[in-house]
Amino acid sequence: MGCRAHNASITDFGGVGDGKTSNTKAFQAAIDQLGKVAADGGALLLVPPGKWLTGSFNLTSHFTLFLHKDAVLLASQDENDYPLIEPLPSYGRGRDGKGEYAFKGRYSSLIFGTNLTDVIIIGQNGTINGQGASWWQKFKQEELKYTRPYLIEILHSDHVQISDLTLLDSPSWHVHPVYCSNVIIKGLTIIAPTDPVSPNTDGINPGLFNCEVLA
After folding, report:
1. Residue 80 domain-assigned?
2. In the chain, N or C terminus with fewer CB closer than 10 Å?
3. pLDDT grade, residue 1 (50/70/90)?
4. Using one digit for the tens of pLDDT, what is the confidence trace for 123-180?
5. CA dihedral (85, 90, 91, 92) positive or negative
6. Taking Cα atoms as reference points, which of 13, 12, 9, 64 lies closest to residue 35?
7. What confidence tens digit (pLDDT) does each residue in 16-31 have?
8. SS3 assignment for the chain
């Protein structure tokens, strides 16, 4: 998981770091395009200084998402920016969902990946801000049909690194690696109010079995 042969900036795909413009399509377009060449030496997407509002997007293999120290990813507060995905097999249902909806799906995480290999999310202490207050309020008022999105969730993947970032105010868990192997998580600063202000905003919540954890 070293240097990448192919590099691009989110601005190359129309990204606007003004804190107001939605960059969901720009992030997904950038990752999809880099994914076409990532098998040949890997690919890196740079998020430069600015405030980058975005909804959920999916990662690809042999890929690095790199946040500049003055870059802030701002998570959209619009539920429509988070596609519904299947509940985790180990849960069988959504954790927050009510009634029949709990079994129908959950909101995809802000940064999501599944069935990947060689994935890095890293920064010079760049920030990912989940802007979770509206989600916390809806949860406490029982207004959500589906489980809240996590900030970062990686499933069924191998050789994953998440490091040198500041993570703030996730709608729910901040980092959730599950059914993964060879995972490195280090150098994270994770900040959220304590429960009950921000319910279930665990810092790092791995799904583990048959694993060795090295600290």
Report:
1. yes
2. C
3. very low
4. 999 999 999 999 999 999 989 889 999 999 999 999 999 999 999 999 999 999 999 9
5. positive
6. 64
7. 999 999 999 999 999 9
8. CCCCCEEEEHHHHCCCCEEEEECHHHHHHHHHHHHCCCCCCCEEEEECCEEEEECCEECCCCEEEEECCCEEEEECCCHHHCCEECCCCCCCCCCCCCHHHHHCCEECCCEEEECCEEEEEEEEEEEEECCCHHHHHHHHCCCCCCECCCCEEEECCEEEEEEEEEEECCCCCCEEEECCEEEEEEEEEEECCCCCCCCCCCCECCECCCCCCCC
Range(s) of the domain holding residue 162: 6-191
Question: What would the two tokens of residue 77 be?
Answer: 């507060």
The verdict on residue 91 lying in a domain is yes
In a domain, 117, yes or no: yes
